[in-house]
Amino acid sequence: MKRMIAFLIVAIAVSISAFLCVDLPHNEDYESVVVVSAQENLIDGEVIKNGNDFYYYLSKKNAEKVIKTLDLDKVSGIVYYFSNKSLDYFNKKLNYSLTSPSNVGDRTVYYGYDKSYYDFRLIDGKKMNVQLANDGERWILGYPMILTGF
Known about the structure:
This protein is α+β, with helices and mostly antiparallel strands. The chain has three helices and ten strands.
């Protein structure tokens, strides 16, 4: 009976964590990642403090291990950097629809909403939790937004 209860507890915990986890492109072709958090010492490695937040830089090699274990309650945002991709790549790989593009400086910026990600911002009365920007060479994909700037 104790084993059955332990099994049920583990199964429930795994189900809840799977529900809260984000289906981020952690096994895709990104080059690097920045994790933004108000918590100090969240991740080992290169970190920069800006205001109240800590910006943790992760190479792809380190990010693949770290992202799977992140406590999303302690994360303000995750930003992926890509090269040599097209808008079509993101439309096919990710499960959200993007808004019409707008220009911010020399960048083309899109917003979207991904139901699998728990956090969002209200923009023009619509839920948004994904931002995608392109400068002609590099793509920046941010959840819930690009918090590290361009």
